[in-house]
């Protein structure tokens, strides 16, 4: 479905990409190096070599519960973002209605507003409504900030999809839902996949919203890490971050299987 | 303005035409429900309603409250109310400190978004058009930083960009003999650009890759068969067709960089204060809600403008197809 | 294609269903016993409260104590945001926060009749007409690497050219930035800190002279590691409770307290206005002021207790400003927050102007 990268373009693109990948990996490599240091506080270059800190982190119940909670929260937030975002993207691109620009702005507004401010505003709102369930509040906050990503990527995909195929299918007698499933969805799969990945990662890493809405029982990972960094910066912190990188690898693999990332982008 | 109106009407016209043609075809095909333009509007409203409703309640209301706060006065108890005043905005634009921070924010955000486009394009090309193993690897490396706390990431950059021979980059360059004296990168706008670029690169790469993945390879094949050199094919066919993805990425990176405060604080220090830092100060340290709201409103205005311009570019692209 | 779509549908259903699970479990847990929400500090102190003090309190009173960690500023912001429907019952905050919260009507005076241990608190640590009682005190000074820099005898040394681009300043967001202003005012006017704090305007030219020495500002206490790693020579003004844990672990870091005085970081307990379960809240505050709890907390976190009669082994005592005689000898100084708080916005702006690019 997509062209291969060959010839002259490949000679240019691959080296440039490799250089950029090095740029992306550089601070991560530094962090990973710090995690094996034997010294009781994180230092670079690391002194000695030990994997003890990883054992320390993995044995820590706070870490395990935080990781589980963040993953669950991100998963639910992503589901919510897809549920809200995909129909909205359709409304933006496929339906002729007045006020589309306004609609677009509204749908993207969580990206436009400083996240810090959104966090405090939500805290105020939930307090006024007496909504005390931190998981629910966090979920709402996270769906709020992740939906625009889904809207953006799915919209971009919809704009590039071939409308005439859909029309042809409908002319041939296919129902609306069938047209969506068999004609539209495969075409926008890259956008949906990108949006899903985005939403999950953004939710997982979100600090500005979580810091206002979380409580002691429900601590997302970024808050745990922030708390550890503020406390005393032992190699356990870089070890936690390295474990997160491994987790990211798993997420990408899972996304690939489920959402066909590879199929959608590399076919 | 008129031009924009025309584009909108063209879109509507083409959709209406399609719908009319289609309903004719359907009638001919044997009598199904006839769709009229009104149905499209209704359908749009229904589809968008959940999202809009959700956002209206949880964002729009607090947002409106925030923006109006910039025009109110705060008393000693922290309550907002009359008199309505422009003094906060006047103060913002009158004091050179804030205009300076505004310009710095714009500059850093635009440069970061631009660099993200340049660096991100090859990565997106590779991601969209390589063998599955390479795609998987590139995807993973690109998004892995997203999951590492921004505080820890920035700390890594502090160690790399450290001024003096102890900084990793300086150490490498000095050892290789590429420079004589250590570079002063940390605590500068450059460092903030580097750090922000690192944080937000995936926001450019992913939309761009999905846009590239959708381009019909037959178009490029045809052009090459007809004798167009590879570079020209890229310039005349691939690049224009990927523009929606590029626009999405650019505005995303711009918006996010403009509102950030952790990276500027850790990597820019006092030399690269951005609007996000000021808002953070106002909300957490001072709780001058009206002035914090003023700064937030200015930030929002900038980001909205950039987003509107990008939408116009996208609309322009669509009508040309 | 069909497989992919059903998979997608299955994922969505599964994820959607799992939304219900955490909500159900949380609601179930909350329904049973009495509970209060307490805002505590971060870092080691917060951890000690969570892991050592609270479990005992919970079992003694058959209740649950939920905590959120934060610094004074975020805690006050949370109080302000939840003013209409207070969620917290007890809030830990610095004395500067007590003044603010009292003025804004966010807290009530501590109910002395329900907190007998208040009698054991040193009088100087009951602040702002009984709206706050200290439970831990740290000392504020400058951070140095003792192997590289000799302890400063006067704050004036901070301005010396040898620290050019080698001084990491605390962010103007934090209270410590006000301490620096007071120190500068003291240097300019020649008056002691107690009087100099009313003459901050005189300090700004002196602060401008400090600009060449400042390499940047920092917010996260872990940045003091830059001093240990040699990237900067001096940092601050920082609290001992953030620094000494590193010293104890063997990092080449130490505090120095110049002769002008030692700034007091007074961590206080406050009673939230209209907070749930006021009796339980009072009992918790009482527990925090219990002599045995005070002793344990101080030794574990290397801060001073606020009550009379605590004793410490020499290797811990050297880090703590206790007893009162030692506090006076160190020149422990708490600022007049009622004067300073309203002037902060203007000073923050000046800070940004002086030290910005």
| Quantity of strands of chain C, as a count | 12
Query: Which overall shape of chain A is indicated by the principal axes computed on the Cα atoms?
Result: globular
Compute the number of structural domains of chain A.
Answer: 1
Total DSSP helices of chain A: 12
What would you say this structure looks like, in words?
The complex is a heterotrimer of chains A (267), B (321) and C (357). Chain A is mainly α. Chain A has one domain (61-266): MetI-like fold (Orthogonal Bundle). Chain A contains 12 helices and no strands. Chain A has helices at 7-34, 52-59, 61-94, 100-112, 115-128, 134-160, 163-171, 176-205, 210-213, 221-231, 236-259, 261-266. Chain B is mostly helical. Chain B has a single domain, classed as MetI-like (MetI-like fold). Chain B has 14 helices and 2 strands. Chain B has a two-stranded antiparallel ribbon with strand order 1-2. In chain B, a hairpin with a 5-residue loop joins strand 1 and strand 2. In chain B, helix 5 runs antiparallel to helix 8 and helix 13 packs antiparallel against helix 14 (289-320). Chain B is flat. Chain C is an alpha/beta fold and 357 residues long. Chain C has helices at residues 2-31, 43-61, 72-81, 95-103, 176-189, 193-196, 204-210, 225-228, 240-248, 278-288, 291-301, 314-317, 324-330, 337-340, 344-355; strands at residues 34-40, 63-69, 90-94, 107-108, 126-127, 132-144, 167-170, 214-218, 234-239, 254-256, 262-272, 332-333. In chain C, a hairpin with a 4-residue loop joins strand 5 (126-127) and strand 6. The longest helix of chain C has 30 residues, at 2-31. At the A-B interface, helix 1, helix 3, helix 4, helix 5 and helix 6 of A face helix 1, helix 2, helix 4, helix 5 and helix 6 of B.
């Amino acid at each position: 479905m997509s062209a291969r990268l060959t010839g002259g373009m490949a000679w240019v693109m691959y080296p440039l990409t490799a250089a950029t990948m090095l740029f992306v990996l550089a601070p991560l490599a530094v962090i990973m190096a710090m995690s094996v240091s034997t010294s009781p506080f994180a230092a670079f270059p690391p002194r000695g070599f030990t994997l003890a800190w990883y054992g320390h982190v993995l044995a820590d119940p706070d870490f395990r519960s935080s990781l589980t909670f963040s993953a669950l929260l991100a998963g639910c937030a992503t589901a919510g973002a897809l549920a809200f975002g995909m129909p909205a993207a359709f409304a933006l691109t496929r339906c002729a209605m007045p006020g589309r620009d306004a609609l677009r702005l509204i749908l993207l507004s969580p990206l436009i507003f400083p996240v810090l401010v959104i966090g405090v505003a939500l805290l105020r709102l939930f307090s006024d409504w007496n909504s005390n369930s931190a998981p629910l509040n966090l979920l709402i906050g996270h769906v709020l900030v992740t939906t625009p990503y889904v809207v953006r990527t799915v919209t971009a995909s919809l704009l590039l999809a071939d409308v005439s195929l859909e029309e042809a299918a409908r002319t041939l007698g296919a129902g609306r839902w069938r047209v969506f499933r068999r004609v539209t969805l495969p075409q926008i799969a890259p956008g949906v996949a990108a949006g899903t990945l985005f939403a999950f990662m953004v939710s997982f890493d979100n600090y500005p919203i979580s810091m206002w809405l979380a409580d002691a029982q429900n601590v997302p990972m970024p808050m745990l890490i922030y708390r550890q960094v503020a406390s005393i910066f032992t190699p356990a912190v870089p070890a936690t971050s390295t474990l997160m990188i491994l987790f990211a690898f798993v997420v990408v693999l899972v996304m690939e299987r489920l959402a066909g990332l590879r199929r959608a982008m590399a076919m | 303005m008129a031009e924009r109106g025309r584009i909108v009407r063209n879109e509507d016209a083409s959709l209406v035409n399609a719908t009319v043609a289609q309903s004719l075809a359907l009638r001919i095909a044997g009598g199904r429900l006839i769709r009229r333009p009104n149905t499209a509007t209704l359908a749009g409203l229904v589809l968008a309603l959940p999202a809009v409703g959700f956002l209206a309640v949880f964002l729009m209301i607090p947002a409106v409250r925030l923006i109006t706060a910039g025009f109110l006065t705060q008393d000693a108890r922290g309550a907002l109310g009359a008199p309505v005043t422009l003094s906060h905005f006047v103060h913002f634009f009158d004091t050179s400190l804030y205009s300076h921070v505004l310009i710095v924010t714009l500059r850093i955000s635009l440069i970061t978004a631009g660099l993200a486009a340049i660096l991100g394009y090859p990565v997106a090309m590779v991601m969209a058009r390589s063998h599955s193993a390479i795609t998987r690897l590139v995807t993973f490396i690109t998004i892995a930083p997203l999951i590492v706390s921004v505080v820890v990431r920035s700390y890594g950059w502090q160690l790399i960009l450290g001024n003096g021979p102890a900084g990793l980059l300086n150490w490498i360059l000095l050892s290789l003999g590429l420079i004589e004296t250590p570079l002063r990168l940390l605590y500068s706008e450059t460092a903030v650009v580097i750090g922000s670029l690192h944080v937000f690169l995936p926001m450019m790469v992913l939309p761009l890759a999905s846009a590239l993945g959708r381009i019909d390879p037959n178009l490029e094949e045809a052009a090459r068969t007809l004798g167009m050199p590879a570079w020209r094919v890229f310039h005349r066919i691939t690049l224009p067709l990927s523009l929606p993805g590029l626009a999405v990425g650019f505005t995303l990176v711009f918006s996010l960089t403009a509102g950030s405060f952790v990276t500027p604080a850790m990597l820019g220090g006092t030399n690269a204060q951005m609007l996000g830092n000021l808002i953070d100060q106002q909300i957490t340290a001072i709780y001058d809600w009206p002035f914090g709201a003023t700064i937030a409103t200015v930030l929002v205005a900038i980001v909205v403008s950039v987003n509107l311009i990008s939408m116009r570019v996208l609309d322009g692209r669509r009508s040309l197809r | 294609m069909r497989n992919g779509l059903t998979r997608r549908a299955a994922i969505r259903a599964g994820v959607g269903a799992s939304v219900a699970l955490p909500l159900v479990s949380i609601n179930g847990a909350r329904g049973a016993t009495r509970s209060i929400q307490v805002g505590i500090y971060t870092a080691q102190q917060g951890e000690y409260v969570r892991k050592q003090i609270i479990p005992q309190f919970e079992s003694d009173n058959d209740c649950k104590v939920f905590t959120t960690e934060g610094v004074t500023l975020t805690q006050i912001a949370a109080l302000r945001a939840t003013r209409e429907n207070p969620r917290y019952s007890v809030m830990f905050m610095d004395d500067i926060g007590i003044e603010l919260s009292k003025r804004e009507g966010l807290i009530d005076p501590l109910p002395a009749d329900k907190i007998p241990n208040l009698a054991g608190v040193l009088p100087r640590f009951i602040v702002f007409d009984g709206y706050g009682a200290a439970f831990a005190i740290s000392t504020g000074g400058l951070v140095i690497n003792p192997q590289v820099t000799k302890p400063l005898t006067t704050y004036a040394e901070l301005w010396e050219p040898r620290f050019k681009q080698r001084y990491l300043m605390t962010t103007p967001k934090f209270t410590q930035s006000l301490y620096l202003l007071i120190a500068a005012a003291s240097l300019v006017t020649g008056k002691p800190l107690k009087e100099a704090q009313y003459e901050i305007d005189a300090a700004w030219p002196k602060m401008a002279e400090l600009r060449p020495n400042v390499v940047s500002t920092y917010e996260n206490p872990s940045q003091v590691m830059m001093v240990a790693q040699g990237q900067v020579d001096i940092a601050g003004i920082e609290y001992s409770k953030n620094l000494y844990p590193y010293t104890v672990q063997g990092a080449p870091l130490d505090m120095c307290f110049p002769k002008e005085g030692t700034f007091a970081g007074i961590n206080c307990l406050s009673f939230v206005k209209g907070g749930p379960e006021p009796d339980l809240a009072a009992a918790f505050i009482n527990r925090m002021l219990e002599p045995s709890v005070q002793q344990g907390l101080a030794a574990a976190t290397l801060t001073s207790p606020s009550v009379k009669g605590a004793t410490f082994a020499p290797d811990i005592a050297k880090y703590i400003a206790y007893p009162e005689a030692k506090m006076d000898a160190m020149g422990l100084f708490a600022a007049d927050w009622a004067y300073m708080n309203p002037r902060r916005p203007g000073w923050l702006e000046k800070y940004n102007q002086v030290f910005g690019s």
